[in-house]
Amino acid sequence: MNRKPSKGVLIIVENQTYFLDTRVKAEAAALRGAGWQVHVICPAPPDDAHEAAKKAQYRTKDAGGISVHSYRVKFAGRGSIDFLREYSLSMAHIMRLSWRIFRDHGFSVVHLCNPPDILFVVGLFYKVLGKKVVFDHHDLFPEMIQARYKGVLRDAFYLAARALEFLTFRTAAVVLSTNQSYRETAIRRGRLKETRVFVVRNGPVLNEFYPGNPSPGLKKGFPFMACYAGLMGPEDGVIELIDVIRFVVQGLGRRDILFCLLGDGVARSTALERVRAWGLEACVDMPGMIVDRGQFRRYLATADIMLAPEMSTPANDISTFIKIAEYMAIGKPIVAYDLRETRFTAGGAAVYVRSGRQEAYASALVELLDDLDRRLVMGNIGIERVATKFQWELQKANLLEAYDHLLCPRSREG
Fold this sequence. Notes:
Layout: E1 8-13, H1 22-33, E2 37-43, H2 51-54, E3 60-63, E4 66-71, H3 80-104, E5 109-113, H4 120-128, E6 132-137, H5 141-148, H6 151-171, E7 174-177, H7 180-190, E8 197-199, E9 224-229, H8 238-251, E10 257-262, H9 268-277, E11 284-288, H10 293-302, E12 305-308, H11 322-330, E13 334-337, H12 340-346, E14 350-353, H13 358-369, H14 372-390, H15 392-407, H16 410-413
Parallel strand pairs: 1-2, 1-5, 2-4, 5-6, 6-7, 7-8, 9-10, 9-12, 10-11, 12-13, 13-14
Antiparallel strand pairs: 3-4
Helix pairs in contact: 1-15, 4-6, 5-6, 8-9, 8-13, 11-14
């Protein structure tokens, strides 16, 4: 057995590949820079992913000094059987790979990223072996479950998810919350001491997200482009965004706007069906997940405005969406529904519409496109807010403080 490093960390991600998770990539790089030996377990990139990422499938890949161990799994759609299959296979792969890493390299910390909140089982196993556990609280898993199901099933699954969340909180020595709302949730629902919960926001890395020159060809001849960039789950509002687009095009008669929806997820196929059913193909471009970061920046730099269609739900109201700060770092104004944490992040860089008022959202979108001066002012507000409040370099200090506390708990309490 190899020598076990005193500063080795195993990061586990289940809901997407490491290569597409900007938060986890930034965290891994920060820990590597602080002298930690970093291993990551995650699903393999999708078949249509960028070639550089696909090379990581089925084997270990060194990515900037970070060892990525990926496994193959089919992500679930909406059915409970699909989720059971996905989570069961993922857990089997994660246990197999984690034990191999522990045997061959060793680690002192297990860093669990949700959703789902089932990874505490892995953390608990290594906690028994004397390892520390960090819970990186990305999403409110119980509220996500509540939003995806109805009736008796919803209530039963929600209670089960709350139990899993509680066990995850209690397994962790340290919890990383993406905002103050999540921190309060962790303290209340996990019955945790305040000293164990750290806010590490989703902040863009400024050398990856910055204003750039547009690529006019991406507009496909349209005078304007409105862009969405992110995951496409049931809670992300992409399906309902097609209703907004329909009203803009057919209700307001605006056929001069290209709506570019970047990303992938279980809601994408339904959104595409609506686009086709309503004859919107000419003005809606849905190229899928753009893995190449340079191309992704070009899309955002070319857009005139960015869209945040997440509507009010118990989870969305207090969640911080990483896309918001990324939009701002590029210097683009945003149209958003008025959610608590979205407003906290964007401030004057966004116009806000009451949740669910799709025609009002459409009108706000058109009005912003027609007001260049306002767009420029809002874009500059976004750039300044990210640089002074939300960029990753500012969040990295909180991450490293959390890890210092993990190694020396009295340093914060004293």
